Structure of N-(5'-phosphoribosyl)anthranilate isomerase:
Amino acid sequence: MRVTAKICGLSTPETLDAAIRGGASHIGLNFYAPSPRYVSFALAERLAARVPGHVARVGIFVDPDDDLLDRAIAAGQLDVIQLHGATPSRTAAIRTRFARETWAAIAVKTRTDLDGARAYATAADRLLYDAKTPAGAALPGGMGVRFDWALLDGFRHPLPWALSGGLDLTNVTAAIRQTRATLVDVSSGVETAAGVKDVDKITAFLKALAA
Ligand SMILES: O=C(O)c1ccccc1N[C@@H]1O[C@H](COP(=O)(O)O)[C@@H](O)[C@H]1O
């Protein structure tokens, strides 16, 4: 079973290049202003220009308006829109309007949260199961929180999916073995501090997938 990875929240050429060199299938550019991984349109444009055609550029958004999406898609040459906090109807509208592969992030803590994924079956192209961050947390993702992967046991996925939330070098192999994920997504697990990606951590994480 081949497993691919999205390295999310990249904001420097060095770490972006490490993700590409290491074989990431997707790279993520974060357009949520409160995030420590936020990239301006100008930076997104410079980073996107370094990404070869076989690597998909994913934009991360939290309930974005159309203007932000317009500008970010152009700047980041985005192939994929990753939505946090968007309702199924808004997700479907974005997918139709922008004609991009669209991922719905599902914030998971309980089986009921997971069941909520079904509402996106005709709205999105892929589900990103991510851990629900604590009430009052500054961000809806990117906080290194993981959910109980056993919740995925026997779940009938309504769409292709990816596993996210608190993954790192120490747990990604077990996560794949347990969930049978074929696409994993990591952000804080390849950082030395919030928003500071690390070339060696990115390289080691991607190497673990190839082993
Ligand atoms: O990373 C962020 O700052 C962020 C902000 C707003 C929404 C999502 C965000 N990150 C996404 O969260 C998941 C998991 O991150 P982690 O590996 O647990 O740190 C990942 O998909 C990021 O795209």
